[in-house]
Amino acid sequence: MKAVILAGGLGTRLRPVTGEHPKPMVPLLGRPMMEHIVDLLRDCGYTRICAALHYRAGEIMAHFGDGRRFGVELEYRIETENLGTAGSVKNCRDFYGDEDFLVISGDAACDYSLDRLMQAHRDSGAVATIALSSQRVPLRYGLAVTDPDGRIRTFIEKPEWPRVVTDHVNTGIYVLSPRAMEAVPEGPFDFGSDLFPKLLQAGKPLYGLVMDGYWADIGTPQDYYRCCADALDGKLRLTPGEAFRTEEPRAPEEQREEGCIVCCDCEDRARLMGTLSELMLDMGAAYDDGIRLKGRDYELHISPSAVRSSVRIAVKSPDPEFARSLCLSAREVVEKLGM
Length: 339
What we know:
Blueprint: E1 2-6, H1 15-18, E2 27-28, E3 31-32, H2 33-43, E4 48-53, H3 57-64, E5 73-78, H4 84-90, H5 93-96, E6 101-105, E7 109-110, H6 114-124, E8 128-134, E9 142-146, E10 152-157, E11 168-176, H7 178-181, H8 191-201, E12 206-210, E13 215-216, H9 221-232, H10 252-256, E14 260-265, H11 269-280, E15 291-294, E16 299-304, E17 310-316, H12 320-337
Parallel strand pairs: 1-4, 1-6, 4-5, 8-12
Antiparallel strand pairs: 2-3, 6-11, 7-13, 8-11, 9-10, 14-17, 15-16, 16-17
């Protein structure tokens, strides 16, 4: 699948953080923000990527090269003038050709399942499908009002509270069909203020999909530092740079461990382990290495991860089917307790 990264903005409001660097190169947990976006795209199946550049394009190109060391094929289109969001994508038309493709900002803080967005777009037959996020205070964003099927009925740009009729905001992440881009003229043109209202007026099908996961608009220093804190707390799932990584110790028992092993994500692994400890206290569990419960024909080991918010469940038994069944049953219990 193909994706276009919009990475040409000046990021004026974020200058106290960025200095003279382009906004996509601002570090987030020790890596440029655009690196995290490239990782996300690759992991969701978007391996052919084109970056639309303008401000300090050479710095971005020097860092990413052809994309091979990040597991993608990366091309660039450089603008000599600001073309707006839709105009920048139109400038990449020789890249996306006649295929549906995804558009995302190079400074987005996001861990969405973007392959799901592409599938929803194909299923609906829309000319454009917009990733929507539920925001408690949506005043800074464009709102999208949808019907029960997800078809967008109207947009409301950055409303005051009296005009807020939904919490669904436009994240600036889109899947587009090439026929949608046919409505973009040459020169500066934006998605939110120009193209999407034009497509709606023409009766073209636009859909919105409320996404699960983390998304934040990094537009100001306050937004940036809040996002850094969220990433450190595990609310935003991404791969940190070397300086932010902690090696997870591997006990000898873990290296030799066989049987069924699964992991469960959770927001608070310490609280979850405390709840499990209370439940298993009278069952004869040992607590010197996570929680270990031994029976005549099995050993159950539950332990928290040292590097991310998750809990590991391992079962050893001479009967592989029993080990798998017990492991999956334990996972159901852990997942319910961790909700």
